[in-house]
């Protein structure tokens, strides 16, 4: 046997080195695919008809459109709830909000006060918690709206830092008209009910009693007269206090557990949030990160920096949309600059549909467009729950892909949890489904055969996409009563409500084939659909099976949890009468360079 030649040995060593390099780079690429950076950009109340990639030709959204062009666009991406608080709870946990108690049984379906005791329970598992356990650096920048404290002003039981986020900078509650002077109030109906009506009753009673007294039919004691005046003065005084203190006590900006601006200023607010996001990215170029950029736009009160004011074709709403798009562009540029683009999954969405009823007393439209779809925020017509769903991950997701299958914002939970290498919790029901097989074309039909649409805690509708069928059935058990009758919303109450005389119940349920009638204009009957009764039977059975999986949990949005509690009030000073501070003056002074 001849000894190996020197050239053979050198060739063998080269092949060995090449094999080791292939294995090394293969493991690196595999790790990149399995543990990408995650950036979530979530708008507030943005309609599916607002971005250019969904057909809008008058609003400029080049950066949002860039995500769509470079990745996947869902056309039937659905919010688990048509309201902010329950939708965001579902998004973070991958579960219908009724499972965590984050679905109300009263008219009020969201948190309005910073000193409410309700919120996302500590035993709920968010994707941030699971990714943090996998070594991710995690941050929430922007709107939270899922509670702050439970029993004291510093227990922070519902705070983002207690739900897996390492860093928080933003609004613990939400943006409201009452937060911006001169923008009106969201409490018009409540003020009418609890102030104007009682004052009218007191006034009518006084006039009636005085008239009877003058006619000699009734002698009016002086103490009754002065008691009525005192009652009226008390009601007016309470209203004045409420309107004066609401803004500083509830419209606040926090950094982690610290209140840094009270009340918050809208001056360059989007720029400050964007800078915070860019700093977070720069700090974490060498480690996997999760950035949840939860925009304040385009929930009212509308605002934008002076560089954007008056630049759009859609007034204040359009200015706000285009400012948000600018911010997204800054994030995408940062990824390119840091060479993180191919290592980052970017997801753009909205928490629910556009708020149709947002029209000012002057007739200015402050709500967005839901495209061809009926309804909007706070109801489960398609306009209320069909939201933008864009995902970009170069090298992994095929650019320019369009998927028409029904998907849910709850699906993002299992998708990124699996990508991060974590295991899904096995001690609870997870309603979301991993999107990667659908995104990569490994399967062609959504893994959701049934989806359930809740109006607060009430099961409102069922969606059924039968296997091996193009039909998508949607059955409503009740629908909101639009006012005026020929309108597309509930304008007198500002939002649609979910029970009582505000809804019309349907027996049999109102049935649509969304695949043929996405505008929900033509309900089906036994005369127009041969399998009408069989379809409803299957959907009712699915609804019954679904409700059997629900457990009784504390109602986080009960009146007891919703109402303001002084001992939970966050205040950056020692006196509740002067809760004012501004530690953001440096950030506010800087404009934006376009």
UniProtKB/TrEMBL annotation:
Residues that span the membrane, as ranges: 190-212, 224-246
An annotated GO cellular component: endoplasmic reticulum
Name the UniProt record assigns to this protein: Steroid sulfatase
Protein family per UniProt: Belongs to the sulfatase family.
Gene3D superfamilies found in the cross-reference section: 3.30.1120.10, Alkaline Phosphatase, subunit A, Helix hairpin bin
Span of domain Sulfatase N-terminal: 36-422
Pfam families: Sulfatase, Sulfatase_C
Signal sequence extent: 1-30
Keywords: Calcium, Hydrolase, Membrane, Metal-binding, Signal, Transmembrane, Transmembrane helix
Matches recorded under PROSITE patterns: SULFATASE_1 (PS00523), SULFATASE_2 (PS00149)
Statement: the UniProt record of this protein carries the keyword Translocase: no
Cofactor(s) listed in the protein's UniProt record: Ca(2+)
Molecular function via GO: arylsulfatase activity; metal ion binding
Annotated source species: Sarcophilus harrisii (Tasmanian devil)
Family matches, as CDD domains: ES
């Amino acid at each position: 046997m001849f000894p190996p030649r020197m050239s053979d040995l050198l060739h063998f060593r080269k092949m060995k080195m090449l094999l080791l390099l292939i294995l090394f780079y293969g493991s690196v690429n595999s790790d990149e695919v399995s543990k990408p950076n995650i950036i979530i950009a979530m708008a507030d109340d943005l309609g599916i008809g607002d971005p250019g990639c969904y057909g809008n030709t008058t609003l400029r959204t080049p950066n949002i459109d860039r995500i769509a062009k470079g990745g996947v666009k869902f056309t039937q991406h659905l919010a688990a709830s048509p309201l902010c608080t329950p939708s965001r709870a579902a998004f973070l946990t991958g579960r219908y909000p009724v499972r965590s108690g984050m679905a109300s049984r009263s008219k009020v379906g969201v948190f309005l006060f910073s000193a409410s005791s309700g919120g996302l329970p500590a035993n709920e598992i968010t994707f941030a918690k699971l990714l943090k356990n996998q070594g991710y650096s995690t941050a929430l920048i922007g709107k939270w709206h899922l509670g702050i404290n439970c029993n004291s002003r510093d227990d922070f039981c519902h705070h983002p830092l207690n739900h897996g986020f390492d860093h928080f900078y933003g609004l613990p509650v939400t943006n409201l008209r009452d937060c911006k002077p001169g923008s009106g109030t969201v409490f018009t109906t409540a003020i009418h009910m609890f102030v104007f009506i009682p004052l009218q009753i007191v006034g009518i009673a006084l006039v009636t009693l005085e008239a009877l007294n003058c006619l000699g039919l009734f002698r009016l004691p002086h103490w009754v007269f002065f008691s009525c005046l005192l009652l009226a003065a008390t009601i007016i005084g309470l209203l004045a206090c409420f309107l004066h203190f609401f803004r500083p006590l509830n419209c606040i900006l926090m950094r982690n557990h610290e209140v840094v601006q009270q009340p918050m200023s809208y001056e360059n607010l989007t720029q400050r949030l964007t800078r915070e996001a860019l700093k977070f990215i720069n700090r974490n170029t060498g480690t996997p990160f999760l950035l949840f950029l939860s925009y304040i736009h385009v929930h009212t009160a509308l605002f934008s920096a002076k560089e954007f004011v008056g630049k759009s074709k859609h007034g204040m709403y359009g200015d706000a949309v285009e400012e948000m798009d600018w911010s997204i562009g800054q994030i995408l540029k940062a990824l390119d600059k840091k060479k993180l683009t191919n290592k980052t999954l970017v997801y753009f969405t909205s928490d629910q549909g556009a708020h149709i009823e947002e029209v000012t007393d002057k007739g200015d439209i402050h709500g967005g467009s839901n495209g061809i779809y009926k309804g909007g925020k706070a109801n489960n017509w398609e306009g209320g729950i069909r939201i933008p769903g864009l995902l970009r991950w170069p090298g992994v997701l095929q650019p320019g892909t369009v998927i028409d299958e029904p998907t849910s914002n709850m699906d993002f939970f299992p998708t990124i949890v699996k990508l991060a290498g974590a295991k899904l919790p096995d001690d609870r029901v997870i309603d979301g489904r991993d999107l990667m097989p659908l995104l990569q074309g490994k399967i062609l039909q959504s893994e959701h055969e049934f989806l359930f649409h809740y109006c607060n805690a009430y099961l409102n509708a069922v969606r059924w996409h039968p296997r091996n069928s193009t039909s998508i059935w949607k059955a409503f058990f009740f629908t909101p009563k639009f006012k005026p009758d020929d309108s597309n919303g509930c304008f007198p109450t500002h939002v649609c409500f979910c029970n009582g005389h505000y809804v019309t119940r349907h027996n049999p349920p109102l049935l649509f084939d969304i695949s043929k009638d996405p505008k929900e204009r033509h309900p089906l009957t036994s005369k127009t659909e041969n399998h009408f009764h069989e379809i409803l039977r299957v959907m009712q059975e699915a609804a019954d099976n679904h409700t059997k999986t629900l457990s009784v949990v504390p109602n986080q949005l009960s009146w007891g949890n919703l109402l303001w509690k002084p001992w939970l009030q966050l205040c950056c000073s020692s006196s509740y009468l002067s809760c004012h501070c501004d530690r953001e003056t440096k950030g506010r002074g800087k404009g934006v360079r376009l």
